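dumping the sequnces here before i forget
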Amino acid sequence: MFKRSLTTVLLTALAIIVPAGTASAAGLSEQTTQLFQYHRGQDVALMLMLVAFLMMFIRRYEWGVALATLLVLVTSWPLYLIIHTGLLGNGLNIDALILAFFCSITLVIAIGVFLGHISTIHYLLAAVLFVPAYMVNEWFLFTYLDGVLDAGGSILVHMFAAYWGWGVILALRNLRVKDEPVQTSVHSVSFVWLASMLLFVLWPSFVTALLPPEQIIPAMINCYLALMASTLVTYLLLYALKRTIDPLVYTYALLAGGVAIGATVDLATPWQSWLIGLFGGVVSTLSFVYLHDWLLARTGVLDTMGVHNLHGVPGILGGLAPLAIAGASWSQLAAIAGTFALALATGFITGLVLRLFKPPAIMLDDAESFPVEDMRATEPA
Amino acid sequence: MFKRSLTTVLLTALAIIVPAGTASAAGLSEQTTQLFQYHRGQDVALMLMLVAFLMMFIRRYEWGVALATLLVLVTSWPLYLIIHTGLLGNGLNIDALILAFFCSITLVIAIGVFLGHISTIHYLLAAVLFVPAYMVNEWFLFTYLDGVLDAGGSILVHMFAAYWGWGVILALRNLRVKDEPVQTSVHSVSFVWLASMLLFVLWPSFVTALLPPEQIIPAMINCYLALMASTLVTYLLLYALKRTIDPLVYTYALLAGGVAIGATVDLATPWQSWLIGLFGGVVSTLSFVYLHDWLLARTGVLDTMGVHNLHGVPGILGGLAPLAIAGASWSQLAAIAGTFALALATGFITGLVLRLFKPPAIMLDDAESFPVEDMRATEPA
Amino acid sequence: MFKRSLTTVLLTALAIIVPAGTASAAGLSEQTTQLFQYHRGQDVALMLMLVAFLMMFIRRYEWGVALATLLVLVTSWPLYLIIHTGLLGNGLNIDALILAFFCSITLVIAIGVFLGHISTIHYLLAAVLFVPAYMVNEWFLFTYLDGVLDAGGSILVHMFAAYWGWGVILALRNLRVKDEPVQTSVHSVSFVWLASMLLFVLWPSFVTALLPPEQIIPAMINCYLALMASTLVTYLLLYALKRTIDPLVYTYALLAGGVAIGATVDLATPWQSWLIGLFGGVVSTLSFVYLHDWLLARTGVLDTMGVHNLHGVPGILGGLAPLAIAGASWSQLAAIAGTFALALATGFITGLVLRLFKPPAIMLDDAESFPVEDMRATEPA
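..and the predicted 3d for all of it:
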């Protein structure tokens, strides 16, 4: 993604030199291209906020999720930009803004693994430790390696989020979280439906945010086809397996098509996109239904929001897809293996640092940060 | 709409042949025009999801509405594209994507008539039967007939949705639904307010999605003026009639201006738009307050979400508006009558097919699809 | 803002005369520029609706806030356009549409001061009285005065809203409102989180809505930096002062960076923007924590939504910022002082008029407008 965005930057630098009227073979001036990115960049930011609402199903732990999301956003986004542009100097443009939101949304996904495991104020520290790790992986994928295909972030965003988060909980080993009661309410889950359905619609802006103009519409169609397939197959599979639809599996796994299509959104045919989404939905559903409990039993630590099931496994699947359909080179495998190792390792170090602090007295509960006593006394839900 | 979009397609085909610098009289290249459609297309998809939240006022039946919406979307959208483009081949572009979302949003509106009447899994079948019927009507309006005015879908979308849905319930005759208790809660209705207010704002993207660039801003202004008028008059009329505002009438009928302006959004003056919206609000409010119960008594079947009151009657009004202000030909009347007949007939056939299956054991209740027992045991709402 | 938008209008008028190919130094035709404004204009309308949800924390008074918002919107928006364009004649373009939404969003913010103080139907009257007052202040800032810097509305929108609203309650003197019980529920406050987080993301569209194309991306980055700073510092300050986070301070004050950056969003450096946001967050938080109760004690009247704390004080701060960083002239001080006086005076007159009518029998309660008895009987929340 970064690599191709570099190409874009070079092409547009060229476009500035060439007279405006002939700026782009496709007929778009550099400024037009950048202004088209304005709204896709904003959509990525909207998605980041909606990820918080996707994670608000625990009825006693909603505001804490929103707060943690905001804290890691406002720490990581400026920090990424400061490093990326040399103290907010050269290159502070729309591409940089979007790359910074990619970094922050990866972190927001990642904290889903350990929400409730640490005190709220320590998310600030987690964010400071996350940004350099993410940027090293970005460099590894698109500068160190050559020819890695990942325009829509299957590897860079989703895989890295899941395994960095898992690195944190493996080091942190806060075993008490999994014994906390997790109850939902109608509307805590209705917020999840809202978030999931809006994320579905906005997803094309995420995977096309850094694509050149002529690839945007085809990629948009591919992205929607993948999401349609995962939304359909997740329902059919849950129905076949259980005859009932767990809303906390369905609202998550339906998005797996968007995760899985990330690496091939600009390369796949429409039918291939639909199939990649289909496989994404299948592996995500199976991960939620079977793998989640198995991992919990094996490791003893709880992936609070099941990030591994939506972002980890479908992210790997998406990263592998270019091997099947786009003749990707070995660097694609190196990208997947390297991201897995780097994310786990840097997450583990972060977890060790976070372990220096006392775990929160109250877990998975808004009472950790907010004065909720009066309200709870007068309202049952 | 389709017809005019065909004109657009032809014009843009021309634009591709003519050198880019002079591509469009208005100064926009074909690619720029298409990229401007990206976000309006996405807005239509957002509206489709929000229609689900508009229908979530029954406090025990929220997730089921979201699930049905998603299932008909992910079946109808690819199916429309497969037929429209010959197995996802030629013409898979932004216009096709938007036309497919028009088909799907029409279906999402239509299922509002019979939500709760059928088992969830049968929405998949309903979607498969809907798409060809919708496409025949699309052909009837814009290929068979000549000169039909309906840029914003008063006839194609709103009328067809209402009468196809009514065709289904008339054939299905599931009489038990109307005896189910329908209770609301503060927040089930607050989600409806959210959906209605966001639909208000997004509506211009729906009615301008296929308009040529120079008509977009004037149509946006017309659309907002119509919605402002219906929102105002609905309040005044409800206040005059009842001295109290039923939120489940108000949040729906306020949108009637958007339905009614559909056929003339590119033709009306600003004042005409405001008046069309005003009449839309009046007929919708009166339909909710009086016609709804009368139809229920006469037919014995329940239009669950009152689709006829927001989309049926204001859709007809909107379809007639070009006769008054734009000198429409007789084909406009043929369009309205033909859509009425075609929608009812194809809906009726769909209802007969759906009647072959057992009605759901539990109606208007999330328990039909989801495991809600534990949650309901611990939470009153 | 208006002034600079006038410049834009003049430049674009020029662009129409000059052949399209060379229309703009930056390579954008007038039509492209206008179509880019389409979505920013729509975003401003979305923000207006979300302001309603920001004010929905009182669990028995949610729908009433939405209704009041809609009523003042649908009265003020057409009225502004009618006056601005001479009965919807010349100049009814995207700039006018956005200026009208600025007027309406200012009013929606302003009614936050006196929500619950008046009967619902009187919001229509308040809107009719507001529009001319707002337009006089707009004329004062950008036609009478010369060189006022306020591209993003710190003075025009936020200051005017707060002091006009305060003018109303000072004249109205409905002292009973402050004795009404104000209880929240989990989800009434979760809607506030949703609104606040989406407003954060959409804010750049508000402050760039009327900027020329080449300033949009830098201003977007400045706006996000300011919001990141206020969101961070508000948390740290609340934590330092109280060790607990009042969600009804936090979700509001985090937006103060957006308010404060308004006047300098197109002039500040990125670091200056971050610092302005930081100061905005500090003064807003301190206003919520200390000033709010002091003003209530001194004046005896309740600013229902704490508008002064988010829009009044940070608005003044934002208005002063150009003096520090952009070498603003004395007219900047005249703009702030004049807006303060004009808003208070016209608000006071409005309050005197509204005082002619009986205060509502039920305050801060949806029962004032809606039939809620049945629902409340069956649902505790």
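Residues 278 and 309 of chain C are 15 Å apart (CA to CA).
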